[in-house]
Amino acid sequence: MKKLLFVVILLLFSCLSEERNVKAEAQKGFLNLSQHSFVKEPFVALNGEWKFFWNTAPSQIKETDSDLFLNLPKHWNGFAMNYGPLSGIGHASFRLKLKLNDNLQETMALTVHEQDTSYAIYVNGKYLGGAGKPGSNQNEFIPEVKSTIVVLPQTSEITIDLYIANYVHRKGGIWNDVVISTYNKAESRLTKRKINETMLSSILSFVGIFFLVMYFYNRDGKHTIGIFLFAAAVLLRTISTGERILIEFFDVPYWILLRLEYLSWFWSAPLLYHYFYTIFPEDFSKKVGTFFYTLSSVLTLGLLLPPIYFTETASIYPIAFVANGMIILVYLYRAYMKKRMQSRPLLFGMLLVLIAATNDVLHAESYIHTMYVAPASVVIFVFLQVITFGRMVRQSMTKTLEFAQEQKQLSSSFSRFVPTEFLYHLGKSDIRYVDLGDQVQKRMTILFADIRSFTEFSETLTPKQNFDFLNSYLQRVGPIIRHNNGFIDKFIGDAVMALFPYDINDAVKAAVEMQDAIRIYNGHRANCGYIPIEVGIGIHTGNLTLGILGEHKRMEGTVISDAVNLASRIEGITKLFSARIVISADTFIEASEGLGYHYRLLDRVAIKGKTNSVFVVEVLDGYDPEKAARLIAIKDDYTLALDSFRREDYEEAIDGFSKLLDKNPDDSVSRLFLDRCHEAKEKTKMEFGS
């Protein structure tokens, strides 16, 4: 356990670690960074004396109007003016003049983290960004808290104006570092911060859900619901403070975000106390817990007031917050001295949480400038609980995992007989939930692939050789279908029926790739002295019924539709034209805009079982690249010859197809049409002759 805990602590603090800011000290509103190396020290916090213009927007600044300076980062609260110290309400501009290296090549950026409670960034008089909308009065003001990165102009002399306004919070001004760095470094660090906070939130969510589930399994274990509530409070604080990752996912108004921040803070202390009380009721005082619950309830009611009032509690509540931690630590030490079970890891975890919480309070109050670390310490704390409770359920968890593995293997085995894609489109997550009569209407593209003259070919093989050959062939075409978002519905002897539920082009692409794989396969067969194979592929798109057919003792998934029958018939047409890939006109029309392949119209053909004939189209990319290129080159001539044939101008058609065959003697489609032209011509002569 010690080794595992050490690894977790190391992981968390490595996530929190980042390149630190170098504290620069501006004097009288000027900072000289001309000699600074941003390679060795990439982040420079622009601390020190900024020129301070109270109740003044950047556009109204006159350098001679003010000789006031404010040492940043610091709120302006209490700043001495002629008429007395400032409160947190108002607006002001802060100006700093920078001198950078004249030969600086990198793109520089300014990172401004959240300020109280809105800000605008002006560089050399130009507005570059900010958070919310600062203004001279509450009507012009929109509060917002977020970090901003702005790109600085490529010049060595820069004037930065930060315009800050606050009318809702008890404190106003710049309390976070303003950092200059290269743009890449700034963006990388801000992204890392958000990732770290997202990771911490994910861990807290997982742990909280884990203990909540444990509570439902064992209602007597009240400590589990206690740690769940505490983890939930810390999770809420994690996503509503720091980089406030909550607003990365939801458009949360400032007044809600601020209340979530305070709500999580008010309740983390009593919930933590309650958790320890449920574990060690003999050592913890119930009255102390009641006091903190009452205090948090009163403070929560205060959240109904405007923020200017309830934020004042931030100057008082930290005392109660730290006092709660100290009392818990004392009671835990008492439990440890009595050798209570689990007291030692809890004492260590609580000490870590107390130190981190104290750091966060001092950071939030601007007494120190570090970073929020309490969420990370809480993760370590709750992880100790996971380890402790994990020992108790290890045996049952092991059995559960073994059972789950068996179920996974069983599901994997079933998926080889009934594709998971089939179940998905049937609306079933598992084969166990399939029942006779389940069915759904879908529009899909159906692909049939059949080996030419397989019956004669198979008669030359033994049964074992037949199976070995078919498995070798199917091992090559099956993955291609899956890779193109399809799935095999069934094997029909040497034929394959596949469904493509998403995109028609998936089916056409799969057919072309299957023909490529078959040519490679034929090369291997030739090297072994075997005869090559040819495969015809037919494709059609239409509505179908996908469902479970059979009887209660024997069921199977199947597809029933006229579209399925038509796809099978179209595959048969490939034999008529000696073509590799033939698709229906319906499929072609739907996919033509994004087909991405070369094609040519074949003919209207009669389909068995269909009253009307069907137009079919050949995909030329199904041939080997050399033949495909030759056919593509004469495609226009082919179209003219076919048009003559359809107009029954057989002389012109014979001339056209003859020329095509002179160029491509292996063009089986042109040869078929040439034969048809001669037959039609002879028939016409006989009719007129008679």
From TrEMBL:
TPR repeat boundaries on the chain: 634-667
Entry's transmembrane regions: 199-217, 224-242, 262-280, 292-310, 316-333, 345-364, 370-389
Domain Guanylate cyclase span(s) in chain numbering: 445-571
PROSITE patterns documented for this protein: GUANYLATE_CYCLASE_2 (PS50125), PROKAR_LIPOPROTEIN (PS51257), TPR (PS50005)
SUPFAM superfamilies (alphabetical): Galactose-binding domain-like, Nucleotide cyclase
Pfam families attached to this UniProt entry: 7TMR-DISM_7TM, Guanylate_cyc
InterPro entries in UniProt: 7TMR_DISM_rcpt_extracell_dom1, A/G_cyclase, Adenylyl/Guanylyl_Cyclase_3/4, Galactose-bd-like_sf, Nucleotide_cyclase, TPR_rpt
GO biological process per UniProt: cAMP biosynthetic process; intracellular signal transduction
Keywords assigned: Membrane, TPR repeat, Transmembrane, Transmembrane helix
GO molecular function (one): adenylate cyclase activity
Protein name per the record: Adenylate/guanylate cyclase domain-containing protein
